[in-house]
Every structure is written in structure tokens, then in C-alpha cells.
Amino acid sequence: MSKKLTIGLFGYGVVGTGLYDVLHKSKTVDATIKKIVVKHKDKPRNISSEHFHYDKNEILQDEEINLVVELIDDADAAFEIVKTALEKGKAVVSANKKMIAEHFEELYELQKKHQVPFLYEAAVCGSIPIIRNLEEYYNNDFLQSIQGIVNGSTNYILTKTFQDNLSYEEALKEAQEKGYAESNPILDTGGFDARSKLQILLTHSFGITTKPEEVFNVGIQNLGDLEIKYAKEKNLQIKLLAYAQKRNEEEVIALVIPKFVKSTDTFSTVSDVFNGVKVQTAFADKQFFYGRGAGSLPTASAVLSDISAIAYDYRYEYKKIANSENLKLAQDFPLKVLFRHKAKDSQNFENYFEEIEEFYGNREDAYFVGSIRFQQLKDVFTKHQDEVSFVLIDIL
Ligand SMILES: NC(=O)c1ccc[n+]([C@@H]2O[C@H](COP(=O)([O-])OP(=O)(O)OC[C@H]3O[C@@H](n4cnc5c(N)ncnc54)[C@H](OP(=O)(O)O)[C@@H]3O)[C@@H](O)[C@H]2O)c1
């Protein structure tokens, strides 16, 4: 039998308003929103002001509320809210990938200690039910890799660059005008949002827990004309991928990086703000999840699904964490990449590469296509990140 849920909702923005809508349309979930806590008193709202409160304790100290739904845009404040809620034995649903990625270990311990569920399907790929599938379905040794287009705004920018021939700057401006990218877009374009999502995917696919700085991310913010032209001439696209692949029984390769994809690759069909996740297993081969990675109602539908799961006492068991003590992030493996840099610096960069198959240069810029070891790639990127760009061709 499902449990009756009395919800305290934090946040009434894009996702919060969507949740209010979908919850009222759902006939099967026995849950009511008792209170909503937001930040700004004078903001116009589309429902009566009596629903709103401005002090987090209105929800956290309310004994009747047994489920906290955290949908705010401030990761630090969200962590304080979620932590207190779990300590008080309240179930929690959240969509806050940054908060989860930054504080996973503490959140994991809190769940164990207080024996309360904490679900966050909407935090990775909005409406796509990937976490619960990884947790429940791919619960075996045969998962080999998971790759995803997990950030809608960068995918929008790349789609506009490739399909509509906009420059990177024009595409970014359009994404900002449509509300797909923030005024300071670096969290998205720098691959940081994708990194948070990859951290969560790593936990649910391979049982590996990480701190943000342990997962390497290259974004799309430095992509230039040379690599875009290179891709177009070869009928390729560039997609920002979150990438996790088992290298052997002890190591998992994990990184966020732009990658060339062929027109025959399923990822090339993931356009605009859509997301896609490809799972590869030993016996089932490839499987593909596709859907809206953001937006009010699509994201709220994943939050609603978590609420419904909590009503049936579902919780993540994190079985893979216990089974993966010997599994670590791989630190040394070769990758084939296109590496664009200033033409005057070509000689300095040659030594980073194991092999250079192709070289092109004009007066300003140059690129190598060749193989480089992961540590060298990290090193060159860390030292020169404003002047260079990498696009992955393949992991070797
Ligand atoms: N938007 C999406 O499509 C999407 C998709 C997946 C995941 N998410 C995640 O979902 C969460 C919410 O995103 P959103 O797009 O709905 O954000 P949003 O539209 O900016 O709304 C944020 C809400 O949080 C409230 N808020 C901020 N700080 C607060 C605090 N300290 N205490 C109480 N309320 C506070 C704001 O109050 P006021 O209304 O008073 O300003 C607002 O209602 C974020 O973690 C985001 O990463 C969003």
C-alpha cells in the first residue's frame, strides 16, 4: 500500500511550478503540498500567497511534513535544507545535481544513518529515467560503458553551430535569449554541469564515488572555427559527452569532453535541448535513452515519479558502492584527439603527443590529430586552457 505524503516544497521556479501542476493533474499519487518556501516575498506568483513562506524552518520543523521536495537554485542553501531534513527523518526528493555531486559522501552517510530515502532522478537528464534504471536494471557485472549528452544548453549551442551555421557566439546569444543558458554560462559551456551529472552516473553505474575535482572536464567554450570546419568537411558533428567506460576489472575511464560523432551515430540525432544516454552492456549490446533534459513539466515529471516511488517506500540501495571497492578512476590511457592551438606554439606542444598523424596550420591557428595520454592531456589543458581546445576522436 502506498503511504500518504505531506510535502514541504522548497522553490517555486521553473521546476517547482511544474511540479505543482503535474501533482495536481496526477490522480494516482496520494500527496499534498502543505507549504512552499521561496526566497523573494515580493515576487508575483500564479497561486494564492497563503501557500508561501520564507523561513526554511516552516517546513523543516513541521512534524506533519514527511517529504521535503528541494527545487531551489542555490546549491549551498539546498545542502543545508536537505541535510536537516534527512537528520529529522524526512524523505527528500531533489533535482540539484551540483549539490549532490559536491556533497555525495555526506548525503550517502545521512541516508544510511537516518534510514530515510533521498531520490534525485531529475538531477540527471531531466525527464529521462536513467538513475533508477542504472540502480535497478543494470545491476550486474556486465555494464561496460555509459555515455551521454547530458547538458541541454551546450547541445543547443552545438546544434545551432552545425545545423544552422551560426557562429559559437551567435548560438550562445540565442541560447541565452531563449533562457537555455545563464547570463554567466560557464557552468554549462565549461562542462561543469555535465561533470556533476557524470559523477552521479558513475555512482549509480559503477559504484564509484568522486569529488568534483577528481573528474576531468573539458567544455565547448574554446571551440573554434578550425575544428568546426574540420568536422563539417568530414560530415561529423561535435557533441559534448559525459563519458564513463570500464577499462578493465580495476579501472573506469571518466571524463567530460567534446567528441566528433558520425552522422550514423545515434548521438547525432540528439538535437537542440534534448538529452540522450547510451548504455553498453556485455550481452545486450547498446541501448539508448532519449528525451527532454530540462524544462518545467518534463523535469517535474521525474520529480513526480520520485514522489510516487517514495510513497511505495522505494530507496536507492547503492548496492554497487559495496561491490566496487577495487574499482578506481583510470589515470593513464591513450586518447586520439584533435588539438587546436596557436600556430606559434606548435613546437612546444608536440612533445605532449605520443604520435601526430595529421597537422594543419595557418598564420594564426594550428591543429594536430594524434594520440596523447590522459595525464598529458590534463596537464596541457590545465596549463593552457584559455588558448587550446580538444575534441575527442576516440579512446584508444
Ligand atoms: N530548469 C530545469 O529545466 C531543470 C532541469 C533539471 C534540474 N533542475 C534543477 O532544479 C533546481 C531548480 O531549478 P529551477 O530551474 O526551477 O530554478 P529557478 O527557476 O531559478 O527557481 C528557483 C527557486 O528557488 C527559490 N530559492 C532560491 N534560493 C532559495 C532559498 N535559499 N530558500 C528557498 N527558496 C529559494 C527561488 O525563490 P524565488 O521564487 O523567491 O526567487 C525560486 O522559486 C536546480 O537545482 C536545477 O539545477 C532544473
From TrEMBL:
Transmembrane segments: none annotated. Its EC number is 1.1.1.3. Residues 11-121 form the Aspartate/homoserine dehydrogenase NAD-binding domain. InterPro entries: Asp/hSer_DH_NAD-bd, HDH_cat, NAD(P)-bd_dom_sf. Gene3D superfamilies: Dihydrodipicolinate Reductase, domain 2 (3.30.360.10), NAD(P)-binding Rossmann-like Domain (3.40.50.720). GO terms for molecular function: homoserine dehydrogenase activity; NADP binding. One of its GO terms (biological process) is threonine biosynthetic process. Coiled coil: none annotated. Pathway: Amino-acid biosynthesis; L-methionine biosynthesis via de novo pathway; L-homoserine from L-aspartate: step 3/3; Amino-acid biosynthesis; L-threonine biosynthesis; L-threonine from L-aspartate: step 3/5. It comes from the Bacteria. Keywords: Amino-acid biosynthesis, Methionine biosynthesis, Oxidoreductase, Threonine biosynthesis. NCBIfam families: PRK06349.1 (NF004976). Belongs to the homoserine dehydrogenase family. This is Homoserine dehydrogenase. It comes from Cloacibacterium normanense.
